[in-house]
Automatic annotation (TrEMBL):
<feature type="binding site">
    <location>
        <position position="131"/>
    </location>
    <ligand>
        <name>Zn(2+)</name>
    </ligand>
</feature>
<dbReference type="InterPro" id="IPR020549">
    <property type="entry name" value="YbeY_CS"/>
</dbReference>
<comment type="similarity">
    <text>Belongs to the endoribonuclease YbeY family.</text>
</comment>
<comment type="function">
    <text>Single strand-specific metallo-endoribonuclease involved in late-stage 70S ribosome quality control and in maturation of the 3' terminus of the 16S rRNA.</text>
</comment>
<keyword id="KW-0690">Ribosome biogenesis</keyword>
<dbReference type="GO" id="GO:0004521">
    <property type="term" value="F:RNA endonuclease activity"/>
</dbReference>
<dbReference type="GO" id="GO:0008270">
    <property type="term" value="F:zinc ion binding"/>
</dbReference>
<dbReference type="GO" id="GO:0004222">
    <property type="term" value="F:metalloendopeptidase activity"/>
</dbReference>
<keyword id="KW-0963">Cytoplasm</keyword>
<keyword id="KW-0540">Nuclease</keyword>
<keyword id="KW-0479">Metal-binding</keyword>
<protein>
    <recommendedName>
        <fullName>Endoribonuclease YbeY</fullName>
        <ecNumber>3.1.-.-</ecNumber>
    </recommendedName>
</protein>
<keyword id="KW-0862">Zinc</keyword>
<feature type="binding site">
    <location>
        <position position="121"/>
    </location>
    <ligand>
        <name>Zn(2+)</name>
    </ligand>
</feature>
<dbReference type="InterPro" id="IPR002036">
    <property type="entry name" value="YbeY"/>
</dbReference>
<feature type="binding site">
    <location>
        <position position="125"/>
    </location>
    <ligand>
        <name>Zn(2+)</name>
    </ligand>
</feature>
<keyword id="KW-0255">Endonuclease</keyword>
């Protein structure tokens, strides 16, 4: 999987965060058997920027932790249509590093666990998983926890 990362965090993003992002997303891609001919981006932001994105695209005027913009939200057959070496663009994630810090403290776990959780959660959304119903939630969250546990960041 090709991964592009962008830093809009005003120096808050560390090399360790970048390595964790690359590692956990590559691991997650293998866990769900994602085609190697896929790509996505992750942009690391602070609360003011993610608040503006949340307001503009979701109509919610508050900062959130992760927002995913799936390229193929309306095309259920896109994964079957991939042929040869055509690149499958999954979409874009925006992650608030301020929320990573806040939520890690609130949940009493490591920043690594929180960052990986948000990355995997958003990644699964980009791959068609959702939690609108109890059944969808159970499936998505089970996969999410399996990935994080197997990666070495259990709850």
């Amino acid at each position: 999987m090709e991964l592009e990362m962008y830093d809009h965090s005003d120096g808050k993003l560390t090399d360790h965060d970048r390595e964790l992002c690359e590692g956990v997303l590559a691991f997650a891609a293998r866990e769900i058997n994602l085609t190697p001919y896929s790509s996505m981006s992750v942009t690391f932001v602070r609360n003011p920027e993610i608040k503006e994105i949340n307001r503009k695209y979701r109509g919610v005027d508050r900062a959130t932790d992760v927002i995913s913009f799936a390229i193929n939200d309306d095309d259920d057959d896109v994964f079957e249509q991939l042929a040869g070496e055509e690149r499958l663009d999954l979409g874009d994630l925006f992650v608030s590093l301020d929320k990573v810090d806040e939520q890690a403290l609130f949940l009493n776990h490591s920043k690594d666990r929180e960052l990986a959780y948000l990355l995997v959660h958003g990644f699964l959304h980009l791959n068609g998983y959702d939690h609108e119903t109890k059944e969808e939630e159970a499936k998505m969250f089970a996969i999410q926890e399996r990935i994080l546990t197997n990666y070495g960041l259990p709850r």
